[in-house]
Each structure stands twice: as C-alpha cells, then as structure tokens.
Amino acid sequence: MHRRAITLALCLAAAFTTLLDQSSLNTAVPALRASLGAGESEVQWIIAGYSLTFGLALVPSGRLGDAYGRKWLFVLGIALFSTAAIVAGTAQEAWVVAVARLVQGVGAGTVNPQVLGIIQELFDGPGRTKALGAYAIVGGVAGVIGPLVGGLLIDTYGWRSVLLLNVPFGLVTVPLAIKWFPRRKPREHRHASLDLPGLALLGGATLCLLLPFTGADQRAWIAGVPLLVAALIAWERRYARRGGTPILLPALLRERGYRTGTLIATFQFGASLSVSLAITLYLQEKLGWPALHAGLTVLPGALGFALLSAIGWRVVGRHGRRGILWALVGSLGAVTSTIGVLHWVPGRWLGLGLGLTQLASGAASGLIISPNQALTLLHAPPGAAGLAAAFLQLAQRISATVGTAAVAGVVLGGSGPGPITGGLAICAGMLAAAVAVAWRDLARESLTGSLNIYTR
User: Fold this and answer.
1) Which of 209, 228, 250, 371 is deepest in the core (most CB within 10 A)?
2) pLDDT digits 0-9 by tens, 79-119
3) At which of 229, 244, 259 does a domain end?
4) What pLDDT was estimated at residue 215?
C-alpha cells in the first residue's frame, strides 16, 4: 500500500510537470516572440509543435509500456522533457525553441501513457475514478498557478525562466521513480507483439494530418492521410490473421462507450486549450496588456477547473454521460458569452467580464475531462490499459494541435475584434460537435432501453 501511494504520487508529479509547462507557456509567447523576433509560423510551431510530437509518441510508448513495463519509459520521458526544457530556456534563436518544444512533446508523450496505465493497473472501481480525479485536480492546479506564475516570472526574470520552470521537478522525479517504481516487467505482457509496421503507419498518418496546422504545405500532407490510413487498415487485418496483436485492437474499437468518449475528448480538449490561448494572445498582442494582467484574467478558468474536478467523479456515479452532456452545453455557453463580452463590455470592465466567463468555462471543463476519462477507460480490454489511454490522449493531442495552431493563426493574423471572434468561433464549433456526439449517444441508449451502459 505504501509503495502504491508513492507510485501514484510520482505519477501525479509527472503529470503536474508536463501540464504546468503547457499552462505557463501561453503567457510567455508574446515576450519570447519579441525577444527572438519569431514570426507567425515559428510561433505556431512553438505552440502546436509540442502537441504534435506529444501525440506521435503516445501510442508507441503506450504499447511499449503494456509489453515491457512502464518504469524505464517513465524515467526516459521525464529526463528527455527536462533536458529539452534546458535547451529551450537557453536558446538564442526561435527555431531552437521550436525544436526543443518538439523534443519536449516526445518526452511528455512517453510519460503520460505510463501515468494513466499505472493508474489503470493500480486501482479499480471507485478507487480508479478517484485516482483519475486526482490526476485531473493536478492538471487543474497546474492550470491555476501556470498563468499566474508565468506572468510573475516574465515580469521579474523574463520569458526564459518560464521555460526553465519545470526542470527542478524533473530532477526530483527521476531518481525517486528509479527507486520506487516496480522493477520487473509484467509477466502477462512478455510475449506481446509490438506491431512496428502498424505503429509506423499510424504515426505517419498522424503526422500528415497535423503538419498542415503548423505551417506546412497543406495539400501535400493531407493527401497522404487517406493512403496511409488505408494501408494501416489493410496491414492490421493481415497482421491479426497471422496471429499478431494489432495496435488497432478490435476489442477496443468495438466498444461504443470507448468510441464515444474518445470523440468527446477530441473535440472538447482542443477547444478548452484554444480558448485560453486565444484570450491570452489577444490581451497581450492586440490590447498590450502586461503578461501578469493577462494571466490573472484567465486564472479564474483554471481555478474553476481545479475546484470542479474534485467532485467530477461524483458526476460519474450519479449522472453518467448525461452529466457530461450538460457540462458540454455549459462550456459552449461560456465560449459564446466570451464573444459577447469582448464585443459589448467596456474596456475598464473587460477583465472582470472575461474572468467570469473563464470561471464558467473552467468549471464546465472540470465536470467533463476526468469523468469522461473514467467512463471511457472502463472499456479498455485487459492488458491494454496503456494502449487505450494512449489512443484517448492521441485524440486529445490531435485536437490540441489543430485547435491551438488554427486559433493562434487567426488571432495573430488581423486587427480589431474580428480575429479573436473568429478564433473563439472555432472553439465554439468544436464544443458544438462534442455536444452532438454526447446527445446522439444518449439518444441511442434511450432507444435501446438501456438505463446505464457506461458503468459496470
């Protein structure tokens, strides 16, 4: 029990490290851009490149963790993340920061499937939901202090201190993980096949899908997506017939609860990150607000997320997917209200108005992310906890890459209130899609007469 508690604490510390980096970076982007002379394309790479490589690393590292154990992958990921943070924080050119962020994404994408996989393996039932709730609370706390600490550090020490902020956490976490994590690989996974061709095809398809949203040529890359997806499906079928274990596990893909939860996560996660980014960029780049002032404006959203994440697991037990649907509707309402505030609230009251809409948006997200994760991962087949968590996070990272790159490009690409309205409209559209998915699934459940298909 003692070792299990320490292992969970280390997993939460790792999640805090990677999520704090994400929440604090937004406040540093304008100062970094001015200091290094970064262009719009370089800014998009710095912001969205992290999510790009994060997503690419998820499935291979999840599969490797299921097959060979999670300890050394966890250690490798944290070490890579921290080393790249040092490079980014000492860079003299914007492209170096962008490359370092890509490497940091690989490190974070290696760590996070191990974190969720370990939670899946250590806990079950209500204990698992509470552990996932703790994971969400850690994310909320990182979100709360990220903009505030980022703003304080920028005003006091400059933008480099924000990129170096997470290095001490990595230096502490790595030796503790080496000492306390389980040393032997799980016996039931020793003979699992890695399906390297399937991993390569999936990674190639993901790369082709995401690169156009980071400034690359759209036609050339998008054209490769259907070809690689078709090749992946053909290979997976052949691989399964030969007795291998494909990465596209049929048992996982057949689960409607898993498919529904993954789609909801896809649309909602990218939207929630993009809303905060859009507001921060607009306040600093267009209105000239100091970094700390902009960070304080979005702080209520992170605070609302942290507080509501603490009770999110109760929503699962009481309302199931229906509670998530209503929270999605609330999140959509908060984004549309933000657009109204930007257009109609006088300048001296703008910070207060945005703070209130951010509070509502963050509270709604707190009732969505952890409950949806818990409901979705209930459907993971035995021995595939890491892979199921990896696919779920891959969907989130695809959404984050597309959303943040598109929104950053729109907000930075013009003057006046039009660009921020366009950026927030993208977020509202993503949330509307999540609402449609959740509503359709509940309608199908009602038609089949099932009272609660998502709890076991």
Assistant:
1) 371
2) 999 999 999 999 999 989 999 999 999 999 899 888 888 88
3) 244
4) 59
Q: What is the C-alpha separation between 430 and 423, in angstroms, rounded?
A: 11
Buried b (16+ CB within 10 A) or exposed e, 306-339: bbbbeebbebbeebbbbbbbbbbbbbbbbbebbb
In this structure, the number of other CB atoms found within 10 A of the CB of residue 296 comes to 16
Q: How many residues does the chain have?
A: 456
User: How would you classify residue 125: left for phi > 0, otherwise alpha for psi between -120 and 50, otherwise beta?
Assistant: left
pLDDT tier, 447 (very low <50, low <70, confident <90, very high otherwise): low
Domain count, the chain: 2
Please identify which residue in the block is written with the tokens 């997993």: 11
Rg (CA), the chain: 21
Mean pLDDT on 290-317: 79
- Considering only CA atoms, which of 56, 141, 169 is closest in space to residue 107? 56
pLDDT for the residue 416: 65
Does residue 140 register a pLDDT over 70? no
Contact 143, 273 (CB under 8 A): no
Same domain, 306 and 442: yes
Q: Is the pLDDT of residue 188 over 60?
A: no
pLDDT, tens digit (0-9, with 9 covering 90-100), for 240-283: 888 777 777 777 777 888 889 999 999 998 898 889 889 988 88
Same domain, 229 and 278: no
Could you tell me if 19 and 157 lie in one domain? yes
Inside any domain, residue 303: yes
Residue 392 · residue 261 · CB < 8 Å: yes
Tell me if 456 is assigned to some domain: no
Answer whether residue 14 is part of any domain: yes
55 and 119 together in one domain? yes
CB hemisphere CA count around 404 (13 angstroms): 31
Are residues 232 and 359 part of one domain? no
Q: Distance (Å, rounded) from C-alpha 26 to C-alpha 115?
A: 24
Question: Which residue, 258, 214, 270, is CA-closest to 433?
Answer: 270
Domain-terminating residue out of 184, 212, 244: 244
Where is pLDDT greater, at 393 or 1?
Answer: 393
* CATH (domain of 407): 1.20.1250.20
Residue type, 138: V
DSSP state of 380: P
Give, for 250, the enclosing helix (H) or strand (E).
helix 250-253
Which pair of tokens denotes residue 6? 């320490």
Average of per-residue pLDDT values in the chain: 82
Look up the domain containing 235 and give its range.
196-244
